[in-house]
Amino acid sequence: MKSSLIIEKFIDTYKLNNLFSKENINLFNLKKYSKGENILNAKDEVKHIYFIVSGGVDIHSFLASGRGIFINKLSPPEIFGDVEYLGETSMLFDVIANSNNTLIMSISFKAIETHLKDNSQLWRFLGVASTRKLLKTNSAILLKEGFNLKNILALHLVENDHLINFKSLNELSKELNVSYRNLTRIIKFFTDSGIIKKDRKSITTLDEKAIKKYAKEI
């Protein structure tokens, strides 16, 4: 399928017609990335806003202590580069493709300012998207730095109605910003205590009172 048709379909599918008209389609570029490929690195100069058309990306950072931290996982139709655009700053985090069919469309800051500067709906869209991401980033860092894994896993269970589904424990460990080894250790602790039940790709709360007690410590 031609790039212009893919972009037009994306805009129609996610009802972004109030942001971009058919005449704006030629302002976008489309590029495919493979799993593990870096799209942007922290401190890179950012010149575009990026829309995830298919696949997805992982956002990573490194704390002052040198420890790596998983910040966020983005999927269609989420965007990145918006925080840096509005804040007039270099790239804050590493952005890495997490699947082999990751397709990204981008529009340059210059094109936005030349053709879309009077589009109030676009500016509102960018403001909401960037604020949500900043709040999630702050939450991830605070949890990583301030609380132990028992509390974090318990809170995650409570927030997900006592059922966590995952593709792999490695993926869950990234989502919780902990090591695989520490995650399996805490799962064993809760399982042996009769507080949770772990199946192949899910974790279920058995003792809601106990898990809520751990969650309340946050």
Automatic annotation (TrEMBL):
Pfam families: cNMP_binding
Protein name: Crp/Fnr family transcriptional regulator
Domain of life: Bacteria
InterPro entries referenced in this protein's UniProt entry, alphabetically: cNMP-bd_dom, cNMP-bd_dom_sf, RmlC-like_jellyroll, WH_DNA-bd_sf
Coiled coil (UniProt feature): none
SUPFAM superfamilies tied to this protein: cAMP-binding domain-like, Winged helix' DNA-binding domain
Sequence ranges assigned to domain Cyclic nucleotide-binding in this UniProt record: 25-100
